[in-house]
Amino acid sequence: MIEAGIIGGAGYTAGELIRILLNHPEVNLNFVFSTSQPGKQVYSIHQDLIGETDIKFTDKINAEVEVVFLCLGHGNSKKFLAENQFSDKTKIVDLSTDFRMNSENQDFVYGLPELNKEKIKAADFIANPGCFATAITLAILPLAKNRLLNDEVHVNAVTGATGAGTSLSETTHFTWRDNNFSAYKSFEHQHLNEIGQSLKQLQADHDAEINFIPNRGNFSRGIHATVYTKYEGSLEEAKKLYEEFYKDAAYTFLTDGELHLKQVVNTNKCLLKLQNFGDKLLITSVMDNLLKGASGQAVQNMNLMFGLDEKTGLNLKASYF
After folding, report:
1. What is the secondary structure of 172-202 as a DSSP string?
2. Section 133-162 average pLDDT
3. φ and ψ of 240, to 5 deg
4. Which pLDDT score is estimated for 103?
5. Catalytic: 270?
6. Across the chain, what does the average pLDDT equal?
7. pLDDT tens digits, residue range 253-299?
8. pTM here?
9. Residue 319, in any domain of the structure
């Protein structure tokens, strides 16, 4: 069994990780670290776990675990690792932004399996991608692979309230979010840098603008992204490019049906639909921000790092009604 630890155990992504790892056939959840909840039962915070586990939050780490997941706020993972030492054999999966850019950290592999599967298999340290970055990058990677991203990319994407984390702010209160909709961080969202880095990995000369408008939706979880750019080929040709690129992908699928969030929420899937309108290709991308956009992808990466089938422990089903 793989001994695993979680750092920052009280948040949404940690809650999803706990749920997955408790049912993972090859993992024992060794500890859940939290400076805000030490000594409390994990189910006192993640209340759906009543009857599922007797694990308590702790403010001490086991430095000998084989893998540790960092579910800390952005900027805090570097600080935590500087102050706490793990064994030379401990693999790390970081879910923050701290290690995603190659120019800053050469030891961490960017953990998008559809792009870096072989590198992930050989890695000891993984920088788990951001949720918007995953949805948007998967929408356009096949175009970059075929050097077809030669014009501006336009993105309008909506995320659920869980994308903002558990800390309360003016825009996360129910009375503000309910029956409401708003844009934020237009053209300057932090995930743009990692999207650009991934595209350049396949199309080195890519320098066209990615015009990204993120939106807050009045639902709990999920991302719905519409992405379009100029494209000179036929729809059939585009579908062939995407089908070839994702033929070995465990969780990214092309479909001709209408896309909506109930198809993917509570799963590790990303679904893509292609449409063409004149000289434009429209790609719709839907996924769960907490699973394929965070904890599910983190476990997918862990599976690859330990030589397991990447779908192990991730047999998650959508709740359609």
Report:
1. TSHHHHTT--EE-STTT-TTHHHHHHHHHHH
2. 94
3. -65, -40
4. 60
5. no
6. 92
7. 999 999 999 999 999 999 999 999 999 999 999 999 999 999 999 99
8. 0.93
9. no
Asked whether residue 188 falls in the same domain as residue 114, the answer is no
Q: Both 81 and 136 in a single domain?
A: no
User: What separation in angstroms does the CA of 315 have from each of 26, 37, 129, 279?
Assistant: 14, 30, 21, 39
Out of 17, 131, 195, 299, pick the active-site residue: 131
Q: pLDDT category, 172, cuts 50, 70, 90?
A: low
Residue with tokens 């999803």: 16
Question: Do both 135 and 105 map to the same domain?
Answer: no
> Residue 252 belongs to a domain with what CATH number?
3.30.360.10
Q: Which residue has the higher pLDDT, 37 or 319?
A: 37
Residue 249 has pLDDT above 60, yes or no: yes
How far separated are the first and last CA of the chain, in Å rounded? Answer: 35
Give residue 81's region: left, alpha or beta (phi > 0; psi -120 to 50): alpha
Range of the domain at 250: 131-287
In order of 127, 198, 232, 294, the CA distances from 106 in angstroms are 11, 15, 37, 21
Do 90 and 61 lie in one domain? The reply is yes
